[in-house]
Amino acid sequence: MENRVEELQREIDNYAITCTDELEAFRLRFMVRKGSIAELFGELKDAPAESRPRYGQLLNQLKQSADRKYDSARKQLSALSTGEKQRHNDLTLPGRKLYQGSEHPVQKVLGDMKQIFRAMGFTIATGPEIELDSYNFDMLNFPKNHPARDMQDTFFITRKEGEDALLLRTHTSPVQIRVMLDDKPPIRVICPGKVYRNEAISARSYCVFHQLEGLYIDTNVSFADLKATIFSFAKQMFGSSVELRFRPSFFPFTEPSAEVDVTCYLCGGSGCKVCKQSGWLEILGCGMVHPNVLKNCSIDPEKYSGFAFGMGVDRTALLRYKIDDIRLLFENDVRMLEQFMQ
Ligand code: PHE
Predict the structure, then answer these.
(1) Which of 59, 98, 216, 257 is deepest in the core (most CB within 10 A)?
(2) Which of 171, 191, 246, 290 to mutate to test the pocket of ligand 1 (most atoms within 8 A of CB)?
(3) From ligand 1's centre to the CA of 173, what distance in Å?
(4) Residues near ligand 1 with C-beta < 6 Å?
């Protein structure tokens, strides 16, 4: 009896159950009423009385080990079959397209601009988009009643009599002030960023857009330095054949001031719809930093001089990528953005 129990135990241990048919064969071989374990139980009554309890114990252990093996094999097989079903279901579905992110057209243009100025020795400075009235206007030499302060142009956040108001910056020039207050000359920075104006929204203007401003302060900086810098930038940005035109202009924080046009890089200067047949496109405003602005930042205007310039980034993106509505740049519509993948 002992030998046969041992033999059956070995057989159970080595029994390979890899599919439901084998599981069923195992059950029929060991577990049913006519199986080999039940058969041994049947023989118990013929065994000598003194050995019966020990044999009974051995047979119980054998039966339990067969039960355990059967249960664990059944669980494993059923887990496998549900996994398989799921995999099969997935295989019948069409593949999911993975969208790769892409650089926004405005960031592409901004990246090119930054690179050109970085190569000329400018470093990048940034400032907050929620700005103090005094940095956005007063320190930049805006008279108290200047029309640009009008509610129509500026988004005010807090505005109390006798307090410095908080507003959304209307240009990146307050970053100049922050840089001049923090650093002493020589200063050579560009300030890229978002600016906000309370304008009627249309295909051509939006309440938020991007500017890139430049500031250079040192001893003996002249208008010729400004012209050379802008000229070098324009050739790299718009092509080596562009010509420049400086028109006298006005900004409270620069004197003298100018606006700069480049020959239209779409028609080469012969006149088209974009340049309104003039052959010129306005690209930026600039000038020599006003002595009052230097004084406001404790920089001696007798010793130092400097130039500043500021340009819009979005319009260049619109022209470069032939986008006809500025609002498309801010709506984050994937159908529009995915056209700029590469
Ligand atoms: N801040 C001016 C604007 O927003 C641009 C500018 C910057 C002009 C620096 C001159 C010098 O229109």
Answers:
(1) 216
(2) 171
(3) 7
(4) 171, 173, 213, 251, 254, 285-287, 308-310
DSSP 170: S
Q: Whose CA is nearest to atom 6 of ligand 1?
A: 310
Tell me what percent of the chain is helix, strand and coil, each rounded to the nearest 5: 45, 20, 35
Q: Dig out the tokens for 265 from the structure.
A: 């890089």
Under a CB-based contact definition with an 8 Å cutoff, are residues 59 and 41 in contact? yes
- Tens of pLDDT, residue by residue over 241-300, are 889 999 999 999 999 999 999 998 788 888 888 888 999 989 999 999 999 999 999 999
Contacts of 188 (CB under 8 A, 6+ apart): 121, 122, 123, 215, 216, 217, 218
pLDDT, one tens digit per residue, over 29-59 is 998 888 888 888 888 888 888 888 888 898 8
